[in-house]
Amino acid sequence: MSTSTSTTRPPKASNEIFIGKKPLMTYVTATLVQLANEPTVLIKARGKSITRAVDVAQIIVKRMDTIGYKIGQIKLGSEQVTSEDGKMRNVSTIEVPISRA
Q: What is the model's pTM?
């Protein structure tokens, strides 16, 4: 059996970046490309990827300070996930909005 979530996710919006296991700069580049087309980009992560989402947001805001990006109101939450052994587990989630200042 594979791990599955108990909640269904809505379709991905064009301004959302989901953080996973790829190299950090991949997500920074993807976010900057989206910010060129969208006024606000939402960086989302859950579980162990939360620290990487925070790193991506900080790299964009601190290193691109001449362009002027800012972090909006951060949302924290949790999702219930069914693990491989059939137990329900809570997994932490984060949403970090980044927009042009």
A: 0.81
